[in-house]
Write a structure and sequence with these properties.
Layout lengths: L1 H12 L5 E6 L2 E6 L12 H6 L4 E8 L2 E8 L3 E2 L12 E8 L2 E6 L3 E4 L6 E9 L5 E11 L1
């Protein structure tokens, strides 16, 4: 309850535009977009060439938070165009935790914060502006 009140307070005061509050299985957690500039994950051009998929997802668990970075070939993330007509090479990703959609993400990197201890199946799915799927996704499992 205290987390919920704090989250409402932060959002109502508009202290930070980079923190969003999410609810999953009646648990409250936050997501920062983009994540802290001090965190760095490198993907080389060789990584992109070796993998035939359009989407590469890299992640790290650090201090109980999941740092996620998406590398997408020939793609532009756009919140402003969400809900508009499908345009190849534009869109966003949908974030799923244990097969439940929890958010739409409009940046290539983000942090999933404050999940309770446990094992989670994370899925990142590439979608068009009109919310239809590119049929491109990556899944991984994380134990906190």
């Amino acid at each position: 309850m205290l987390k919920f009140i704090f989250a409402i307070l932060v959002l109502s005061m508009n202290v930070s535009n980079s923190v969003e509050t999410l609810v999953y299985d009646d648990q409250l957690f936050t997501k920062s977009i983009p994540y802290d500039e001090t965190y760095e994950r490198l993907v080389t051009s060789q990584d992109l060439e070796e993998k035939e998929d359009r989407l590469i997802v890299k992640y790290d668990v650090k201090d109980g938070d999941i740092y996620v970075e998406c590398f997408v070939k020939d793609f532009s993330f756009s919140k402003e165009k969400a809900g508009t007509l499908k345009n190849e090479g534009e869109g966003h990703v949908h974030l799923y935790i244990n097969d439940n959609k929890v958010d739409s993400i409009f940046t290539s990197s983000f942090i999933i914060k404050s999940l309770p201890i446990g094992t989670y199946k994370i899925k990142v799915e590439l979608v068009h502006n009109d919310y239809s799927s590119y049929e491109v996704f990556e899944e991984f499992e994380v134990k906190l």
